[in-house]
Amino acid sequence: MATNAGTSPPPPAVPSGRPGAPQTGKPHTSKTQPSGRPPGAPRISKLGVAAVIITVVLWASAFVGIRAVGPSFSPGSLTLGRLAIAAVVLGVVVLPKMQRLPQGREWWPIAAYGVMWFGGYNIALNAAEHLLDAGTAALLINVNPILIAVLAGVILKEGFPRWLIIGSLVAFSGVAVIALGSGQRSTADVAGVLLCLLAAALAAVSVIIQKPVLRKFPAGQATWFGIMVGLLCCLPFSGQVVGELQAAPLPATAGLIYLGVFPTAIAFTTWAYALSLIDAGKLAATTYLVPATTVLISWLVLGEIPTVWGLVGGAVCLVGVGLTRRRSR
């Protein structure tokens, strides 16, 4: 861009819409870029949007899958089975393209989110769903996006955008509505509540730890590394998963395979890909759509007709997530 240093006073400003308009002394700036985005706003590719949608749908289906196979598999063996299947499926994709393994201190964050997210989170969630009804579990797990937004604001310096906070609170209220209308009034076991909160905390911390790793490794590799760490942690459940597989009916085994391939291998990879493109706090807000999507999948797959509360709560979640995408002026 030409400058006016060492020249005569700048000519009068000319409307920017006129072709060939001369430069003024003050560099021309626009409130929006050609695409309509504010200056400096990151452009989310269509692949990034698709990755978010895939993640939400597949993670929502996991709640249905866990409920379906829960009677046949205990929390530890279910986690080990999912991770073993995911490790094989994702390994076939990422290993031929892998150029290097993490070195030295690069393993520390990978080990941390591998243990906490792929190991601890899954075991805690599986165990919690044996003690709590689905609505209460969904409400408690969805403390996670708020925790991520707070941690991302403090640790990753993403700040606290006004619309992110407003939208998160609206979406969280939608999750609460879904939970209140779940139709299952079982007493919330204290252990189940604590397990859900533990799972939410482990996932939130893991997202913050994983974000910098994605600057060094592709999403598929970063996910596979974490799965392998979680798999090693769950090896003590090997005998248990073998015995339960032998006794499990075919539909339960098929459900385990589904959980390993889709909500684990695929969805955690699409999440990592989206996380490499989007601020952690804003991406986490999209997971408020998971409970609403779970209601829809349960309706289609299990024939569980959603209540009016479920439909209203789902609509509120959509509004809340939409608000998180607004930009403060």
Tell me what you see in this structure.
By secondary structure, this protein is mainly alpha-helical. Helices cover 66% and strands 0% of the residues. The chain contains 13 helices and no strands. The chain has helices at residues 46-69, 75-94, 107-128, 134-141, 144-154, 162-180, 190-213, 219-233, 238-247, 250-275, 280-285, 289-302, 308-324. The chain is globular and about 45 Å long. Mean pLDDT is 78; it is low at 1-42.
Contiguous uncertain segments of 5+ residues: 1-42
The ordered H/E elements are: HHHHHHHHHHHHH
Q: Work out the helix count.
A: 13
Mean pLDDT score, rounded? 78
Class from secondary-structure proportions? mainly alpha
**Strand composition percent:** under 5%
- End-to-end distance: 27 Å
Could you say which overall geometry the principal axes of the C-alpha atoms support? globular
How many strands? 0
Radius of gyration: 23 Å
Reported for the largest beta sheet, the result is:
none
What percent of residues adopt helix (DSSP H or I)? 55-70%
SSE inventory with pairings:
Layout: H1 46-69, H2 75-94, H3 107-128, H4 134-141, H5 144-154, H6 162-180, H7 190-213, H8 219-233, H9 238-247, H10 250-275, H11 280-285, H12 289-302, H13 308-324
